[in-house]
User: Fold carbonic anhydrase from Streptomyces chumphonensis.
Amino acid sequence: MSTSPHPRAVTDRLVAANAEYATSFTDPGMDAAPVLNVAVVACMDARIDLHAALGLRLGDCHTIRNAGGVVTDDVIRSLTISQRALGTRSVVLIHHTDCGLMKLTEDFRHDLELEVGQRPSWAVESFRDVDQDVRQSIERVRTSPFLPHTDDVRGFVFDVTTGLLREIAPGIAPGK
Ligand SMILES: [Zn+2]
Assistant:
């Protein structure tokens, strides 16, 4: 294992990389609405390069990421804005193999409360069965009353060892 750089040095490195990036950056003259009218909700896992893995280019999509790629209220907030204000229609959900949330339980929340004396308002949303968690995420999107477009919602598991997506068939959809 390599030793980690000083925490502050990491951000300095990013800022330096940005200065380099900007030297060859030209204004793409794009509108904020995603070209492919799609929003991708994915885990924040460092091993998933969403644009490369899905053949996406700058301006193509909205990417909404959090720990687990969980469809939380805040993800619904972003999807609602994505669809109603910026014209997206399709939703792609991506969980993955070896997700950190499979190694946690709701004890994480309990232990945290004991440590800091305050109960977090959020659920950990840990899971054991990644396929089932994708199905649950699909259902949360499909049944959201705030989203006008729920006919093209598909969920996948990304294999971090092969780079391949595996599609998960949705559960029996309740009538909306
Ligand atoms: Zn993950």
